[in-house]
Amino acid sequence: MTIACVAFIGPQNNPMYLRSLEPASDDQYMKLHYVVHCSLDAVEEKVLLKRGPGDVQESYLGLLYPTEDYRVYGYLTNTHVKIIVLLDDEAPVKDDLVMRVMKRLHNLYVDTTSNPFHKFGMPISSPRFDAALESIVSVYPRPGGSVGGFKT
Amino acid sequence: MQKPLAPSPAPGTGPTPAKKPTRRCAEVCLELLCVECVRLFHDKQSGPAAAAALEAIGYRVGQQLVERYTRDKPLLGDTLEIIKFVCKDFWQALFKKQVDNLKTNHRGVYVLQRTSYCPPPSPCPHPDMYPNTPSRHLAASRSRAAATPFLCPHADTYPNTRPAPPVHPPPRQGVYVLQDNGFRWLQRLAGPPPPGAGAGADPGREEAARQLALRYLHLPCGLVRGALGHLGVACTVEADPKQLPSCTFTVRIT
């Protein structure tokens, strides 16, 4: 089980950040964009369905939908930023593990927005953000790496 | 300036355990910074420009703060929940107390009052709202309305049993009034009451203080507007220092 791609989508459903964790060609990036784009409908659906009187909805939305190659997980912040994570479709995944990664990605986003040079709603381009994201995602074993226990 | 705000322990609570260092900042530093900001902008620019600049700063900071403060909260649903969040958690984090009083006009009431009101004739601004009405119908009603000026232009499409729909966009905006008796950032301005004088002893002095306080309220207004705007509630915020140090913030949702 590996994370294939991480995406941050802004409040107006504008892509702010999309990164494939494996080297990918333009075509593959196109495909990832497509999968993430489709997942936005699923996010809206989840929010609409779960909303009842007296209902408390968590930010973590869980598995949005499986595709042939990926499993798509979603997370929605209070400021309407969606975090989409694509997992390679191999072995079953523990839900709380994904949730922990999502929380850490959210924390990273909050720290990034506290940067006075960050513009809200604009694409995120920061080497520090890239590095921090990699360190979060590396909780999961890389394809060539050992399939040992997870660092948390 | 958003960093020192987040972990703001009350002064004099004693040192934190050494193993868990938290970032701290004396509150007075922040107050001085705000005061200096206001002074600087009012020195450099004239009234409205300075106000806009200060509000823009507040807006930006509000956005960042709300991003941080809502991090561990479950999803906020409707507007009221968001306003409540601002009144409770946001206020607590910024001003160390909650809003004392929150009033709202439940916007439905206003619409109900509108039902008996037949607006003066005007070209229908929303032809797409009434797709079933043929255009000639509208034209006819309009010309008839010109002859009898106070007839509802939609009287023929909507029989008497139904109230006329408002021609102007219905007042969907909600108004929320946040009252804080003892706004922290105005505490210093209020000063002690003049000795041996009752309320309103010196209206001129009070008015001067009020005008002065207005300058310092652009920043908090921007903060509130930024917080609400970032949570998806577009609004305008007006502050009114009635009796220092109490202050009311009027939030109009647009």
Keywords:
heterodimer; A: 152 residues; alpha+beta; Beta-Lactamase; B: 254 residues; Muramoyl-pentapeptide Carboxypeptidase, domain 2; four-stranded antiparallel sheet; TRAPPC6/Trs33 (chain B); TRAPP_component (chain B); NO_sig/Golgi_transp_ligand-bd (chain B)
Task: Please summarize what this structure is.
Chain A: One of its GO terms (biological process) is endoplasmic reticulum to Golgi vesicle-mediated transport. Chain A has 152 residues and is an alpha+beta fold.
Can you give a write-up of this model?
Chain B: InterPro entries: NO_sig/Golgi_transp_ligand-bd, TRAPP_component, TRAPPC6/Trs33. Chain B: Residues 1-14 have a biased composition (Pro residues). The complex is a heterodimer of chains A (152) and B (254). Chain A is 36% helix and 22% strand. Chain A is an alpha+beta fold and 152 residues long. A five-stranded antiparallel β-sheet of chain A has the order 2-1-5-4-3. In chain A, helix 2 (95-113) packs antiparallel against helix 3. The longest helix of chain A is centred in the N-terminal third of the chain and has 25 residues, at 26-50. Chain A is globular, with a radius of gyration of 15 Å. Chain B is an alpha+beta fold and 254 residues long. Chain B has two domains: 2-10 and 22-108 and 170-191 and 203-253, Muramoyl-pentapeptide Carboxypeptidase, domain 2 (2-Layer Sandwich), CATH 3.30.1380; 121-165, no CATH class. Helix content of chain B is 45%, strand content 10%. Chain B contains nine helices and four strands, in the order ααααβααβαααββ. Residues 1-17, 108-125 and 129-171 of chain B have low confidence and may be disordered. The interface between A and B is medium-sized, with 19 and 17 residues.
